[in-house]
Amino acid sequence: MAVSVTFNEERLAGQAAETVRALVADRVHERLAAGDATLWGEEARAEAAVRLGWLNLPLTSRELLPEIGILVERARAQGLDHVVLAGMGGSSLAPEVICASADVPLTVLDTTDPGQVRRALNDRLERTIVVVASKSGGTVETDSHRRVYEQAFRDAGIDPAERIVVVTDPGSPLEQAAMDAGYPVILADPNVGGRYSALSAFGLVPSALAGADVLKLLDDADAVRPLLAQAEGNPGLELGAALGAAALAGRDKLVLEDGMSEINGLPDWIEQLVAESTGKSGKGILPVVGADPNETGDELVAGIDSDGSVTVAGPLGAQFLVWEYATAVAGRVLGIDPFNQPNVTESKENTSRLLAAGDLPLGTPALVDGPVEVYGEGLADAKDLSDVLTRLLQAIPDDGYLAVMAYLDREAAFDAPVAEGASFDAMTDAWSAADPATLRGLLAVRTERPVTFGWGPRFLHSTGQYHKGGPQNGVFLQITGENPVDLEVPGRPYTLGRLQLAQALGDQGALTGRGRPTVRLHLSDRVAGVARLLEAAREV
């Protein structure tokens, strides 16, 4: 089954059709199918020339299947049924969607939160196989995970070479380190960028080990591939034209809904693809995941097998390829390079400098509201936390958005304690409060503007590019927290908790350096701090 794109709104259908005609007149469909690197202008040509390998992955990735099959057979023979993926951005988001949609278990470590990492370490270590995935081979989070697991395996009397698999690009420092350590290495196509790598080794290796049918994924993508070279009936061209034309007309907030789709979590993957590809040079399309649409006039609703201004239906493998194609087309329509990420390294460099400098520059809180310390400019006269949140919401421009960024435990940050023998209503209230969507929802109902939510440092590899390179209309709320139990990173002069806080401060510096309003809330007690934060959000 191929992907279908259906327009449920006359205005959008007209804009998309007009844009498709212009694209076809420029032979974009033919040139993109042929890998023409000149489609995005002379400045983007060099980057695009080494970033178009994703067009052929439904075919070329088949060459990896025998090698992947050997890894799967070996893991099954050894009884290794707990698959842990250490990866960031495109290296983690695609496998997470693939495995969730296939209903096979995969533990994803795209965090530096010591509690979350420690919990993974304590889960069936004797039956664990770890996939260390990094395109550059130097991703600090993934390097930390590898070191932590190597030490844990050795401490348990397990040879890490029997439990760690590496996926990386040819010639990366990780490839050499893995070869020296005797780890199996599967090399990815170097002509594919991280966010376009769903159908590459980065998506296939962890997913196959977890039990997903990766051959079907490639077959479904291959089924739609011929359509992407056509002038008519080309779902990627139609979707890309719609995204680009809508953004040029002022509808640059892309609300992603997956309704009752059998595909689980695809909006999170699309969020990274679209935000990091288009959010630069003061332009961009802001994906909004998990939020109800507002009647603000600047939102475009895309439904994954569900109703929206545009509905995109089809199997997961085909959806990956069509959204990648559409994002590349939208980049041409918007006049940006969809393959670079000029602002991503800034926060990384800030983090490295902070770690090397010694003590982290925490600053002095503008106010303290119980277990919540508030850091930010112009807040000296704020009365309490609810007043701070009110001011943040009021600071959002008419065409802007609020981004909530939580450097906490993605799996347990909003867990609420439930007393033994508690009533059903009490348990329901606790479960509701435990959902991070509760915080976003509490803030969203108090503004007409979009509210996004990202887990740090995960979002730094996706929407982080848009935050710094996109339009100057964002307002930012950081949440950090004390780590009662930290975790050493073997061979490095920092702990995971220190790295986590340095990443937050590094990104805060990148945002404030651009004059983008940023407030950091530090939870001196995580459980009590979350409770106070939710209470304050209700008081706004």
UniProtKB/TrEMBL annotation:
Coiled coil: none annotated. Its EC number is 5.3.1.9. It catalyses: alpha-D-glucose 6-phosphate = beta-D-fructose 6-phosphate. GO terms for molecular function: isomerase activity. Pathway: Carbohydrate degradation; glycolysis; D-glyceraldehyde 3-phosphate and glycerone phosphate from D-glucose: step 2/4. Pfam families: PGI. Keywords: Gluconeogenesis, Glycolysis, Isomerase. Transmembrane segments: none annotated. It is an enzyme of class 5 (isomerase). Belongs to the GPI family. This is Glucose-6-phosphate isomerase.
